[in-house]
Write a structure and sequence with these properties.
This is Dihydrolipoyl dehydrogenase. The protein has about 475 residues and is of the alpha/beta class. It is built from 14 helices and 22 strands.
């Protein structure tokens, strides 16, 4: 098709096939709409292909590898010799996982009548979009559109990744060899997750963070155990430190650092990984032609239904303000699809859980103690340590704790947070409890199976009420 030909008409065009985009497209298909899903690369977006899934595959492999040295105390003795990790073998495993999931998304789109178009899309107006598909240019006329173009890594010019010595997270997950020394610029969740994984695989890791602590957007008391374990792994953490320059050469990279505490110093590494942050992909999709407004940072402003300032155009996921989380994007996509169908759907819940896959894991939902106090609540908070949980001891995962944050007057649960093994799965109970406006008594009266890690919630709730069984209660 060439420019000027009659446009193909469809009910909805979805731009971007990540977790939000494909969820929206599938839900629209279920609701009987004709849908065109435009994706320039593989379905699943950054999360499935270059982010969430590959990184968790690496983190899992690193955890399994690190456990080998501690098996003797469990009575397991490996054959003599030093265990080895082969990055090339892991790459094959990662690709098999990604391929299976991407293929599954494609099949689900097909089964729900979604037309997938591989190409780069940009608005021509508020009811037309043009798509570059290799050698061709196709035009689609739509009644509604959903923008789900996601985000990309941010790096200042002097830290621009070259794919060889200076890496972004995608480059790091494509390495064929574990670097002997790795400098990570940015101690947020991506930097700490990947840093701890590579440390377990044998890298000498240095994390450089400009803020006064790593994971600065997470409650300080929730981060302490992660820092402790990172240092046990031999990681060097330099906080309150900025990178002034980076030199990349044949022998690796050299970083010039500056801080108030240490002054100026230079560190060297084989690779430097930049994990400073991400930017929304809104600059090259023709928003001006569509009349869609963005804020000063390039994010699209939306209401609880996902509508932009143009009533027929919606935006979801990382292009909107708020946490850049795949599960948030997927929920937004479903809401937008249902609103288009005339259903009373809204993104009206404040309970979006977060998970950080460090060692130990951190997960939470709702308010922290500090946030609740700042909002004027009279707070009662209680914790229960993993080391007092039978299952945690049995599987040698005794580091961490569960915390409940409670309104002292009403006993309403305000927040639930876990630091420890499998916190990523445990937090689902917290999300449900807060969604149902549960009181701490509801949690304490719920019988939890034994022996399981889930009992930490039961005991934390009982501790808040002053009658935990497996720890001494505070008077």
């Amino acid at each position: 098709m060439v420019v000027g030909e009659v446009a193909v008409e469809t009910d909805v065009v979805v731009i971007g096939g990540g977790p939000g985009g494909y969820a929206a497209a599938i839900r629209l298909g279920q609701l009987g709409f004709s849908v065109v899903l435009v994706e320039k690369e593989a379905l699943g977006g950054v999360c499935l292909n270059r982010g969430c899934i590959p990184s968790k595959a690496l983190i899992h492999a690193a955890c399994e590898f690190a456990k080998l040295t501690g098996l003797a105390k469990l009575g397991i003795h490996l054959p003599e010799g030093t265990p080895a990790f082969h990055m090339s073998g892991w790459q094959a495993w990662k690709e098999s996982v990604v391929g299976q999931l991407s293929s599954g998304v494609e099949q689900l789109c097909h089964a729900n009548g979604v037309t997938v178009v591989k190409g780069t899309g940009a608005f021509l107006s508020d009811d037309r979009i043009g798509v570059e598909t290799g050698r061709d240019f196709e035009t689609y006329k739509f009644r509604h559109a959903i923008i789900a173009t996601g985000s990309r890594p941010f790096a200042p010019a002097f830290l621009k990744p070259d794919g060889k010595n200076i890496l972004d997270s995608t480059d790091a997950l494509n390495l064929r060899k574990v670097p002997a020394a790795l400098a990570i610029i940015g101690g947020g969740y991506i930097g700490m997750e990947l840093g701890m994984a590579f440390a377990k695989l044998g890298s000498s890791v240095t994390v450089v963070e400009a803020a006064e602590r790593v994971l600065p957007q997470t409650g300080a008391h929730l981060v302490q155990e992660v820092v402790k374990q990172a240092k046990k792994r031999g990681m060097k953490i330099k906080t309150g430190t900025k990178v002034e320059s980076v030199f990349a050469g044949e022998e690796g990279v050299s970083l010039e650092l500056v801080s108030e505490r240490e002054g100026r110093e230079q560190i060297s590494a084989d690779k430097a990984l930049v994990t400073i942050g991400r930017l929304p992909n809104t600059g090259e999709i023709g928003l001006t032609q569509a009349g869609v407004e963005v804020d000063e940072r390039g994010y699209i402003c939306v209401d609880e239904a996902g509508r932009t300032n143009k009533p027929n155009i919606f935006a979801i996921g990382d292009v909107t303000t708020g946490p850049a989380l795949a599960h948030r994007a997927a929920k937004q996509g479903i809401v937008a699809a249902e609103v288009i169908a005339g259903m009373p759907s809204r993104m009206d819940s404040p309970y979006i859980p977060y998970v950080i896959f460090t060692e130990p894991q951190i997960a939470g939902v709702g308010l922290t103690r500090e946030e609740a106090l700042q909002l004027g609540y009279r707070v009662k908070a209680a914790t229960f340590p993993y080391r007092a949980n039978g299952k945690a001891l049995a599987i040698d995962e005794k580091e961490g704790f569960a915390e409940v944050v409670v309104d002292e007057q009403t006993h309403l649960l305000l927040g639930m947070h876990a630091v420890g093994a499998d916190a990523s799965n445990l937090i689902g109970e917290g999300v449900l409890a807060l969604e149902l406006a549960a009181r701490v008594e509801d949690l304490a009266l719920t019988v939890h199976p034994h022996p399981t890690l889930s009992e930490v919630w039961l005991e934390a709730a009982e501790a808040a009420l002053g009658h935990a069984i497996h720890i001494v209660n505070k008077k």
